[in-house]
Task: structure prediction
Amino acid sequence: MTWTDYATWLGTGLSIIAMIVSICQALRAKNSAEQAKRMRDEISVRSSHNELSNLNGLLGSAIRSMDKYGPGATENARRGCSPDSDAGSVRAVTSEMIRLKNILIETFGQEVDELIRKINDLLKKFAQSIGPTERDEFGYMIHAEIVEFSGNMKKELDGGIYR
Result:
């Protein structure tokens, strides 16, 4: 064997070692990319969960405002209350729902658009009510809608915690 044969064997050996190192680095890079994607997705889920938690707080406030129109509420419960203030707390919820529309659609589906529209229509009728009886009726319907949505929201938030 000549020195060129040794050089060829040495070059071939080094090439094989370099190939093995390259494959190991490629696998490590692939695993790192997958881990980064999982972390990004987890951050996204936590962010949307946080946004939904904030919305849930507004829902609780709106429900407390509209409780005086809910089932079992009497006329005495509405004495001294401000329908404008009650409607304002519900408007805050629908405004936040519009802001979080993409997250809500991703979480609950396209029905969110219809729910926002329905609550806003009920709010208009609530504000334009001729008398207290009519306002109480629309208040009752608004209360029912936000209580139902609140239940769905809590179920989603609890599911996010216990996954």
